[in-house]
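Run log // design_07
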C-alpha cells in the first residue's frame, strides 16, 4: 500500500508540475518579486495556498459527485484524456514557436505587503485557467482512485505547486536568465508535451482495460 500510495503521490506531482510551468502573468510576477527580494514568502505562500485549496475542492467535489452520479467517473476519465492530449499537443506547438517571460512586463508601482497580497491573489484567482487545471482536471483525474489514494494525489499536486513557487521566488536571480530565453521554454514545453501525452495514453489504456 505504501508503494502504491507513493506512486499516486508522484503522479499527482508530475501532472501538476507539467500544468503549472507555463508562461503567464502569475509566474512573471513571482519571478520579478524574487528579483526585487520583496515579500518572497508571502508571494510564494499565497500562490501555493490558492492552488492547494482549489486542488482540495476538485478532489473532494468530484469524489463526492462520482459517488452520487453513476458513470461520472468514466466520463471524467475520458475528459481528462482528451484534455491532456490537447494540452500535450499545445505544448509541442509552443515548443515550435517558443516565447519567454518578460519580467519587465508588469509595472509594480507599490511594494507594500498589502498591495503585494492583493496582486498575488488577483493573479492567482482571477485566471480562469487555474480552475480548469485544479478543480476540473485534477478532480476528473482522481475519480479513478480510492478515497485514500485521492489524498495522496492531492498532496502530490500541492507539493508540485509548493516546490515551483518557492523555487521561482527564492531562486529568481539564478532562474531569470533562463526563463528569458526562448530556448529554455522550447525544452520545457517539449518535456511537458511528452509528460502530458504519456499520462493521457496511460489513462486511456487503464480505462479500456477496466471496461472489459
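design_07 sequence
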Amino acid at each position: 500500500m505504501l508503494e502504491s500510495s507513493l506512486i499516486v503521490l508522484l503522479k499527482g506531482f508530475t501532472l501538476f508540475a507539467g500544468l503549472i510551468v507555463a508562461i503567464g502573468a502569475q509566474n512573471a510576477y513571482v519571478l520579478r518579486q524574487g528579483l526585487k527580494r520583496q515579500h518572497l514568502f508571502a508571494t510564494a505562500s499565497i500562490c501555493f495556498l490558492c492552488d492547494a485549496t482549489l486542488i482540495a475542492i476538485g478532489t473532494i467535489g468530484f469524489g463526492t459527485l462520482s459517488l452520487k452520479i453513476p458513470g461520472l467517473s468514466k466520463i471524467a476519465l475520458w475528459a481528462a484524456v482528451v484534455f491532456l492530449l490537447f494540452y500535450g499537443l499545445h505544448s509541442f506547438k509552443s515548443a515550435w514557436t517558443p516565447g519567454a517571460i518578460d519580467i519587465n512586463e508588469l509595472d509594480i508601482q507599490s511594494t507594500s505587503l498589502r498591495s503585494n497580497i492583493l496582486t498575488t491573489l488577483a493573479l492567482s484567482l482571477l485566471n480562469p485557467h487555474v480552475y480548469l487545471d485544479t478543480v476540473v482536471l485534477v478532480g476528473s483525474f482522481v475519480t479513478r482512485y480510492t478515497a485514500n489514494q485521492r489524498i495522496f494525489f492531492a498532496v502530490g499536486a500541492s507539493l508540485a505547486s509548493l516546490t515551483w513557487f518557492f523555487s521561482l521566488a527564492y531562486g529568481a536571480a539564478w532562474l531569470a536568465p533562463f526563463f528569458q530565453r526562448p530556448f529554455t521554454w522550447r525544452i520545457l514545453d517539449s518535456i511537458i508535451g511528452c509528460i502530458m501525452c504519456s499520462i493521457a495514453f496511460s489513462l486511456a489504456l487503464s480505462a479500456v482495460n477496466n471496461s472489459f
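The chain has a mean pLDDT of 82.
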